[in-house]
Amino acid sequence: MTHRPLQPDDRPVLEALLRNNPYKQIQIQLQELDPHKLVQFHTESILSQSEDPDSPIWLFERGERFGIIGCHFCETHSSFFDVPIYSIEPVVTYRLRTEEKLELFSHIGDILEARGARIVWGKCEEQEGDLASCLIQMGGAFCGTGVRLSRKISDQNRPAANPALQIRFAHPEDLPALKLLAGRNHTHSHFFRDPNLPEELKKNIFPSYLEKCYGQPHRPLLAACGENNEILGFSLLLCPARQEEKLGQTVGIVDFIVVRTDLHGQGVGSSLLAASLDLLEERGYRYVELKTMLDNFQAINFYQKQGFRLLSAEMHFSIGGILGKWM
What we know:
The chain is α+β, with helices and mostly antiparallel strands. Helix content is 36%, strand content 29%. Strands 1, 2, 3, 4, 5, 6, 7, 8, 9, 10, 11, 12 and 13 form a 13-stranded mixed sheet that branches.
């Protein structure tokens, strides 16, 4: 199998790979995306990454079969955990045979070792099961499966809000309570299952993330308040720009909803979701999507009752190294 760095002249091959990707069809149908715009958006994103020396991408070829694989230095996470972390992305290998995929991952492993990576994250669509096998053979530890769910905002099945609760934008003085709530109650994430991350830092990742997002105009933060303005839960949203141009559709994102554990089932989550949908609709979004872990049965059951449908399931792996050598 031959390989070389991805070049701008490879655009036709890249577009063909993205256009025929079977793992995107459900998302295109459920969110009514424009397939042509989606291909162009991902093509531009991948070609842009390939120009970054810290995030190289390679094109692999054998006969009529092509594959794309790259690596990306995770600057924010590396700084937070004080260890060099890379992710293997993008990975577009559905046309390759299993032994050819292994060859790709062996190549990328050599590159990452030379770069001094200590932790490498990889993920794959659950449907492309042999990719999971490749990551395991590289020494990857399985960290759980994340699922993406989506619904049309204007559908009649809207969450029922609890009138006894006040849902409002978070204030600066709310931040300490919100961070405490995030640290204690947001526990379903592949980060917490990663055996290679420092245990003492894991508990602070979401409080730190929340603080970083607070105040950004495209990251609304809603707080659910009870008596005496007590914080009972929150919803962090992501409002992407120029989506009509990029996707032919507008999709707002519920980054995560967190409710005090002792208040589950009392309408706090429903009220936050209802307010989140209202806000996204006011800002012109027609669809909403969110992520959770596959084994977070309570959350999945809740979202499905609110009209959300499954878009995809993605398996997460973490590969740890000692002194730059793969375990």
